[in-house]
Amino acid sequence: MAAEKSHLWTEVDYDADGKQVGYIHLPHSVTRSAYGTLAIPLTVIKNGKGPTALLMAGNHGDEYEGQVTLCKLIREIEPKDIRGRLIIMPAANMPAAMAGARVSPIDDGNLNRAFPGSPSMSVTYQIAHYLDTVVVPKAEVWFDLHSGGGSLAYVPFASVSTSGNKKLDQRSLELLRVFGSPVSLVWTYLPDSRLAHSSAHRNNVIYLGGEFGGGASVNPDGCKLTYDGTVRALAHMGILKDTKKFKIGKAPEKVRWMELLGQSYYVYAPDHGLFEPAVKLGSMVKKGQLAGLTHFVDNPGREPVPAYFKDSGLVICQRHYGRVERGDCVAHLATDRSEP
Questions:
Q1: Domains of the chain with CATH codes
Q2: pLDDT score of 291 more than 50
Q3: Calpha distance 244→237 (Å, rounded)
Q4: What is the structure's pLDDT at 4?
Q5: What is the pTM of this model?
Q6: pLDDT (tens digit per residue) in 195-253
Q7: pLDDT for 239-253, tens place per residue?
Q8: Which residues fall within 8 angstroms of residue 211, CB to CB, at 6 or more apart?
């Protein structure tokens, strides 16, 4: 039985030279619009033969630095500036992006937990399926630009995840090095097969991501890091002919290489309440050190419950919201590694 094709469609011709700014349409029949669609912004810029890069943000709608960067690049890049093709999606989960939320308000779908998706499930899974079967196979590299969103704050970094494919991993690390993030991280622990990187790896596509801010704010430093690194990487791939018009800064002379190795790097809230961190974002901590206390303002006589770090390392991520429920991630670590 043949696999079911996506129901999404676009008036944009992926193979035509020039610059096209349009939409991917997801059929969405509701009371107010019987034959309506959800319009997901899509820009394709093409100039002859060459590599293809997929530039994507808004995988989570409340992560903004990548969305800002891609809007800028859509306006700035013209076909004469490139060789090959750029496919740019600044708000991949459009309903979530318009709501300023991590997940879609339509189906509560988390796009980064929906791959490979399905054409017969709800809207978020249909978007994932279209990416997995139509868009990603066209690319040599996929930039998926993230941040901590509303619930988390990050020390900004660019990253790749290991695939088990030695050649693909080598190409990924090379591009991460060129991106030029002062902190560059390798995810060796990403056990969830529903994440976007799994789609890239199945298609033998370099997957370059990162966490460039957090707290559902727009971090200017994160925007600058995302913009400059993307331009550098596209030039390295031979897609951008020249970087002069983009006025990027110099890559850092020294990079701190880090990695995330396992579940022990994560700390979770032990109970419902108000979480008070015991350390600051960016601190170095030791195994067994206090991560924070959960207080109970509805029962103030109750002693706060502590949470401890299960490993040593850098606090690269910390919860932004004060209120927690049992099981919420309140911090995670990264550890130094030698330059790959």
A1: 9-260 (3.40.630.10), 267-336 (2.40.50.100)
A2: yes
A3: 16
A4: 83
A5: 0.96
A6: 999 999 999 999 999 999 999 999 999 999 999 999 999 999 999 999 999 989 999 99
A7: 999 999 998 999 999
A8: 146, 147, 148, 154, 156, 157, 159, 317
Helices 166-179 and 220-236, axial angle in degrees (round to 10): 120
Instruction: Write the pLDDT tens digit of every residue in 65-80.
Output: 999 999 999 999 999 9
Cα-based torsion angle of the residue sequence 138, 12, 133, 238 in order, rounded to the nearest 10 degrees: 20
